[in-house]
Amino acid sequence: MPIISVEGPKVTDVEKKRRFAQDLSRAAARYYDMPIEKIILLVKENEPENVSVGGQLIADL
Amino acid sequence: MPIISVEGPKVTDVEKKRRFAQDLSRAAARYYDMPIEKIILLVKENEPENVSVGGQLIADL
Amino acid sequence: MPIISVEGPKVTDVEKKRRFAQDLSRAAARYYDMPIEKIILLVKENEPENVSVGGQLIADL
Amino acid sequence: MPIISVEGPKVTDVEKKRRFAQDLSRAAARYYDMPIEKIILLVKENEPENVSVGGQLIADL
Amino acid sequence: MPIISVEGPKVTDVEKKRRFAQDLSRAAARYYDMPIEKIILLVKENEPENVSVGGQLIADL
Amino acid sequence: MPIISVEGPKVTDVEKKRRFAQDLSRAAARYYDMPIEKIILLVKENEPENVSVGGQLIADL
């Protein structure tokens, strides 16, 4: 039941999501020495006006 | 000020949300031995293409 | 695979944790209309100097 | 790389977001004694039917 | 009930925590146009072997 | 500035952490099409009495 959460910008290509889910889940299964079926992934997509780096909104960069 | 966050699929029935909020908040008030007014709940609803179990997107199951 | 996370003060009574895990997981199984086996709970325990309400550390109240 | 996450209701005024990002990031840079460029902020906006206080949905208050 | 969570390295000076809690909570009260009493802050302190930037553990930098 | 958070049991082997950080960060850099330097990872380690699956504490399994 390890849980991976990822926060980042929106990605619309579902094929990339499939590969990302595979890559992260395999890495976690190896790290925790558990079957991959136990690994849960949540991808969170943030609007550029809701994220800042160094006090600057991504929407303003 | 205990905070409960729940990640899961979208539920559209607001009546179910009302009951869920009651159930979780009462359980937390009992557990922490605090008045229920102190309990905060956040429900997060995820798209099936943004969640995977065992490396497989929920959208693909 | 719904995931419940709870943030609150430390509770040392494991029997209370057992009941809390049961209460929350049953409520979530009902809400999501899923078998209880799918429900994951994480309890996070915070030091009173690392939590504030209204700008005041819990440790100072 | 300190990360600030804020959960609250939606705010549509982007100028307020700019100032909020500045205020939080400066406070974190001072607290951690790091350059402001290292501070990341995520603002999460929740629907009133997905938040409860004391077991009552915000949407019902 | 807005909630601010901060992830960063451990800070042992409680006086700095007091000021940080004040700074963040005031900024959030202004942003959300709510009384400061509604603002909750959680500070999370991470070990340098449990954080990486660019694939490198902070403990190795 | 994508952020990966992982919740799971404690792993004491730092060499495994190094590899895990590399694996996850590379996968995220590829997914987001960003330089790996932008990827932040937080590993959270939970006590078995603070996690439950299906309403059962991991500590009781």
List keywords for this structure.
61 residues, homohexamer, alpha+beta, two-stranded parallel sheet, 1 helix, Macrophage Migration Inhibitory Factor, two-stranded antiparallel sheet, 28% strand, 31% helix
- Reported by name, the CATH topology of chain A is Macrophage Migration Inhibitory Factor
CATH architecture of chain A: 2-Layer Sandwich
General shape of chain A: elongated
Sheet of most strands of chain A: 2 strands, parallel
What is the count of structural domains of chain A? 1
The greatest interface between two protein chains, and residues involved on each side, is: A-F, 23 and 23 residues
Quaternary organisation: homohexamer
Helical content of chain A stands at 25-40%
Termini distance of chain A? 38 Å
Spell out the CATH superfamily of chain A: Macrophage Migration Inhibitory Factor
Task: Tell me the structural class of chain A.
Answer: alpha+beta
Q: What topology, given as strand order, has the largest sheet of chain A?
A: 1-2
* CATH structural class of chain A: Alpha Beta
- Mean pLDDT score of chain A: 98
Low-confidence stretches of chain A: none
- What is the helix tally of chain A? 1
Q: What percentage of amino acids of chain A are in beta strands?
A: 25-35%
Q: What is the ordering of alpha helices and beta strands of chain A?
A: EHEEE
Radius of gyration over C-alpha positions of chain A, nearest whole angstrom:
15 Å
